[in-house]
Amino acid sequence: MMGAFDFGAIARALPYLWDGMQLSLLLTGLSAAGSIVLGTILALMRLSGIRPLEWIGAIWVNFFRSLPLLLVIFWFYFLVPLIAQRQVDAFQSALVGFVLFEAAYYCEIMRSGIQSISRGQAWAGYALGLRYSQTMRFIVLPQAFRNMLPVLLTQTIILFQDTSLVFVVGLADFMTSAVTVAQRDGRLMELYVFAAAVYFLMCYASSLYVKFLRRKMHQ
Predict the structure, then answer these.
(1) How far apart are CA 133 and CA 43, in angstroms?
(2) What is the spatial distance between Cα 121 and Cα 25, in angstroms, rounded to a whole number?
(3) pLDDT digits 0-9 by tens, 60-119
(4) Where would you tag: which of 47, 84, 155, 193 has the fewest CB atoms within 10 A of its CB?
(5) Residue 192 burial by CB count (10 A; 0-12/13-18/19+): exposed, middle or buried?
(6) Which of 1-10, 12-21, 118-127 has the lowest mean pLDDT?
(7) pTM here?
(8) Burial of residue 155, with CB atoms counted within 10 A of its CB: 0-12 exposed, 13-18 middle, 19 or more buried
(9) Is the four-CA dihedral 159, 161, 166, 168 of positive or negative sign?
């Protein structure tokens, strides 16, 4: 069976697959950065003690965590151009969908991280004359990020895997590129096995790094 396995088909497709991988990595990086920032703001709103802000944060989290990501991507593909009153390309609309959706998950991670910090840390900041925003920025959030770093990376690995869903808006990410070449050249076995191997190696290596970070933080 392996005798019929054409490694040359993979080699010939590498430039095209690399273009798809670059799009997947770019979408993952931008989405993770935007989601962490927005998720942190939502977490602070949920912990603010101000009821309207708490409600907005809670509604956001519960709303997006109740929807399938595929639907959100599709939804924003049609909604963003209507709001912007101009044509928005598929990458931009997908990015908006990912950021708004993933922020709900990063929010809960950051909320746990902030709650893991002793209140004495904040009181110490106030005793030094710092305002609430300064206490959060210089004392609480840096420690929360450090504590939650392994979980944030784990969520980012999931985000990377989820980028394969952008095929619904016509974007040629790594997985879509592999499918396109497989169907065009009639080499389904080679391209699908290669795509699975790439995803496995990248995600498994990232998982090992997360475990390394966890061990290091608990030493």
Answers:
(1) 14
(2) 37
(3) 999 999 999 999 998 888 877 787 787 778 898 899 999 999 999 999 999 999 999 888
(4) 84
(5) middle
(6) 1-10
(7) 0.88
(8) buried
(9) negative
